[in-house]
Amino acid sequence: MGRIRVLPDQIANKIAAGEVVERPASVLKELLENSLDAGGTRFRIEVESGGRRLIRVTDDGCGMSRDDAMLAFERHATSKLRDVKDLLSISTLGFRGEALPSIASVSRLLLETRSPEESTGALVEIAGGKMLRCDEAALAAGTSITVRDLFFNVPARKKFLRSDQTELAHIASLATHYSLAHPGKTFQLISGGAELLHVTPVATLRERVYQVFGSQTLDELVELGDCQRELLLPPAPVAPPEAIADYRREPDDPPSRVFRLTGFISRPQVQKGNRNSIFTFVNSRLIRDRMLLHAISSAYHNLMPHSCYPFALLFLDCDCEEVDVNVHPAKTDVRFRHQSFVHDFIRDTLRDRLIESRPAPAFAVGTPQPAMGLPFSEFTQMLDNEAPPPSEPEGQNAAPEFTLRPEPGPQPRFDFGEVGQAVRLPSPGAKPPVPETHGDFPPGFLPPFSSSLTALGDLRPLGQIHESFIIAAGRDGLWIIDQHVAHERILFEKVLKQRAAGRVEMQALLMPLILQLTAEQQIEYARIADELQSIGFETEPFGARTIAVKAAPAAVPIGDLEKLVFEILEIADGELRGLSMEDVRRSIAASIACRAAIKINMRLDQAKMEWLLSALAATDYPMACPHGRPIALQYPTRDILKAFHRI
Length: 647
Ligand code: ADP
Ligand code: MG
Known about the structure:
Structural class: alpha+beta
Distance between the termini: 90 Å
Shape: elongated
Bound molecules: adenosine-5'-diphosphate, magnesium ion
Strand content: 15-25%
């Protein structure tokens, strides 16, 4: 007798649940997506004990008939796909028909639903995959699904759950981010009777970001606007690798496709220790994609230290056929048809916006407070501290990790504590009356709160502190500029521009510098020899594992040359770890700039300071040095006035 058996549905569902339901937040994701697909406009989410004990989602969507309510729990039962062709143009969030039977197989589930056209509703109760009840009932139009005792019959899964607080943090974050994707809808999240989130419909994403994060976070973000890029399709149909390729292209396909990107990204001063604050939506679906993360990181390359990540809330919209969402059961992964086009579109758009906005970092005055309107920040903060479970490889999590808490910006390299204290000291209410003799500032005098680095061009240098930092007065306040990193930024952009134009300035060495390489360094050298040449190094092999450096980029001190070459070979090694050739080029330019830049503890005369400031103002990105450190700090006039109790 044969040994192969077809698994009963109940077991198959439990297996599917392993992929779809990782934790309470993944249940919420499926329920919320169903409610959104059902056309709901108001979503009420109730949870208890971080969702272990209870998760209930109530919507005012299209509801289900009694027959559909029962069918919904059959495996692969869906109203969203009709035939295989539909798989290529999925516009709904769900389509696999797996979520409800999977969730029902690992919990006690109650479905209450009524479609507005019918007079009575249906009530279905299931526990551990077994149907207990299916009755008619008088119900409000819409659907409510209650999931109790998640994993009550799968103790092994239960053990993997984190504390209630952590699970709640995941839930809060998920609910919030769906609310950001749908500003026109109402979202309410209640945990153990306490309301954690309640947002009412607004017209724009900006208003929703304000509702959710408050004005402080909004100030730290740059809005992308409506950015588009057109992809020209080749005239002949492309043959895709999948078996369902026949359906991929219709003969009347348009010859081009437009990709749209909207959303918010943080200024480079907002630096996070992990990727938890990056949210990407593709066609309104919250997804986690390595390629998108890479594109975002590349946009911040040389604007932020390597180990830091920004906050990003990105919405990419494109033709459904440009993206395959049927890659993973939890539908958090996607595959783009034109990966590198999408990658470059995102990287270039973000970088351009960052460069345009030129935000100036203000002095770190006091500790930034979590944004108002974010009552669950204490929960979400925990996600930042949470180490990933050992079994989960990075980027493979079924449920993305979310966090909302705005974090303090980077600590300035040097402590400006005295300045901070001067501003912090006066307590609210204790403001002494200002005698009239002190004079008033004319109305309309006050500059805008967050000023931009375009102001750098008009600064008047006053002197140096520690022969390292230039103090300058500007129309919008007092500035401190780190002379080394400022010069680094200037040289970095100069090296890259000269490299692009094929006109690098070089210095010939009187005696070639002979360097002994390890086997690994030899391999890296062979790979980047051309790049070295185009960026200003003249090198050639000189016997086994030895190279001779005959010329170097003009400004590099000869004494630093050996260290620089080895540093560059180490950067090239980074390519193996995922750096693109362009990133390697930028890193090489950063190293050259760092070696050639004026150092700290160096006296500068007035003319030099003036030159430095105007050259810095002329750079594309005067906010951060190529390693991501801030260059200029501003003490805005407004803060000065506040500190002197003038306002
Ligand atoms: P999928 O979403 O992939 O279709 P699910 O198992 O999540 O599969 O849901 C099965 C079906 O149940 C859906 O296709 C939809 O017709 C119905 N359904 C689920 N939730 C709701 C809801 N909140 N309102 C109306 N219909 C729903
Ligand atoms: Mg679904």
